[in-house]
Amino acid sequence: GLGYLAEALLERCGDDHGVWVIEPDATLHRLGRYYRAQSEYYRSPRIHTCFVSALAQVSRCASRIPSDAQWVISPYVLRLKRTEWTPLNKIISILRAELASSDFYRPLLTESFRRNEWRVALMPAATSALLDGSKIICVCGAGPSLTHCLPALREWRTRIEIVCASGAVPALLRGRVVPDWVIALEARASILRDLSDLPSGTKLIIFASAHPEFVEQASRFECYRGDGADGLATRGGSSLIPALDFALRTAPETIALLGADLGDQSGPYADGSLRRTEAQSDVRASAPKYASMRAGFERILQNADSRSGRIFHVMTRGQALQGTVKITPDEFAWIAQKNLNCEMIHV
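and the corresponding structure tokens:
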């Protein structure tokens, strides 16, 4: 806009803080400079402005902003979103979902970190582990496509290594499939129910954000930490994101992503789990949380181009993640049966 919001924020923050502005309208910025050339918005070295005319530029611009920055969506940009397309439209939906989630989780996370940090710091790093390169690595979330894949997971279990989000554990166990690795990230008490029947000795990747009561009881598992200087990616609102990041870093060959439907078009998430699922919205619409999840997945997939193995996204409907090959549950069953990890797979 014309810079009034940026100036107000600059006035409220200390001298050691800056304001970063992502501006979709370069013409409006030039107009403001013409009429407000002497204003703080155009003169302060602590206000940094970058211009975007395409979605790809948003990512490059955002990469320059400190990771701990607070995000503010201006009313001006929200009005633009309602009346016309701008490259910020998609990222605004993602940010609004993440900001709402942050408001809910902030008090939970504060308590979790206070009680957990020292315990988690003593665990070996998850990135020091290696997955079995002779097997297909299945990364499992709680989306409805997981249910369709349970028969193949059960039948070809010895040819598969499973890394899963905690929310997928109840569905896997009900399908008589015990995972090899489980991500314990969830700060809510739901993780206690999700993992109550998980066999002792299962490998867990635990984050300091996990519910403190669960972390205190985790000694019966083989525990690794997901936090740290080289920690796993977590931004995106899903425990499946660090699960995929772990697989990408430690698995040399084929990865199959299951239960990551990224929408309600195929049924409710956490179907068959111990959670109450919300009433489904119009399947033609896409909830902001799914856009946030997709962005989280695609951020880590961008760094996976050099991998020799293939990444399959198993789903019946919807758009597969960039950097993956979309296959159906039936095609996944065929891959599991053939166990073609050491050959080129054509689907």
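(Above: one complete record from the training split.) The CA atoms of residues 80 and 148 lie 41 Å apart.
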